[in-house]
Write a structure and sequence with these properties.
Mean pLDDT: 86
Largest sheet: none
Low-confidence stretches: 233-238
Order of helices and strands: HHHHHHHHHHHHH
Number of helices: 13
Helix content: 55-70%
Number of strands: 0
Structural class: mainly alpha
Number of domains: 1
């Protein structure tokens, strides 16, 4: 009996990708804040790619058992920024954008390997290993990009939204933050709610991949169909 959300034999790939993706995401927040004048995260040792600095064990356990999780939030003092609103939005957006860039890099690696016939020279075992790893690399990073832009606390999309609403509305929003965890449980574990909320959002992975393929085809030639053909089923990864 498998008590994990993911297939047991693919768990090592998922754990590795999650550790890298979460670490880069939180590093992007911390590094951008430091560049804008807030060294709070730096003082706490968060301007690092070391996964142990960002790992939240409860969030990691939820990830393995329930399919979603979280890392330690990066502390940011917006009052230290010269332009608090603009710089806060950039610092917050840096996390999801880093995951989008990681997904793009994963697809770029496939293009490079295809261009030098690296994909065709792989053994069956290596082919299957790389196929599984890159699939999860794209799947998880695109999911983190989209999921973190949802305007619900404590996600990045909510923090961005806070910067644009009047103070009276912000105060009302803050009173609802205590219910955010229960809202997520309802959206994730009740299929009808998931189907009309989170589900359609994750379908955005298809145009995102299409956009990256269009961009890469400009530099490598029209080989996107061959690359995606090798990576079977990638447009249905979520």
């Amino acid at each position: 009996m498998n008590f994990f959300w993911f297939p047991l034999d693919e768990l090592p790939f998922i754990i590795l990708v999650m550790l890298v993706s979460f670490s880069v995401h939180e590093f992007a927040h911390a590094w951008t804040a430091l560049k804008f004048g807030d060294d709070t995260a730096y003082q706490e040792g968060r301007v690092t790619l070391n996964p142990m600095a960002h790992l939240d064990w409860m969030g990691f356990l939820f990830l393995i058992l329930a399919g979603f999780g979280w890392a330690k939030p990066v502390p940011v003092r917006r009052s230290r920024f010269k332009n608090p609103r603009v710089m806060s939005v950039i610092v917050t957006a840096a996390g999801p954008i880093s995951n989008l860039l990681l997904a793009f890099i994963g697809l770029l690696v496939l293009y490079i390997l295809h261009s030098v016939n690296g994909l065709g020279s792989l053994s069956n075992a290596m082919d299957e290993t790389l196929r599984t790893f890159i699939s999860y690399w794209l799947k998880i990073n695109l999911a983190l990009f989209i999921f973190n832009l949802i305007p619900l606390p404590p996600l990045d999309g909510y923090r961005i939204l806070e910067e644009f609403v009047p103070i009276r509305i912000r105060l009302k929003m803050q009173r609802l933050e205590q219910w955010s965890f229960f809202i997520f449980l309802l959206l994730i574990f009740i299929p009808p709610l998931r189907a009309i909320t989170i589900g359609p959002l994750f379908s955005l992975t298809v145009p995102l991949i299409d956009g990256m393929i269009t961009l890469l085809d400009l530099f490598f030639g029209p080989i996107g169909n061959s690359v995606i053909g090798w990576l079977v089923g990638i447009t249905g990864i979520i």
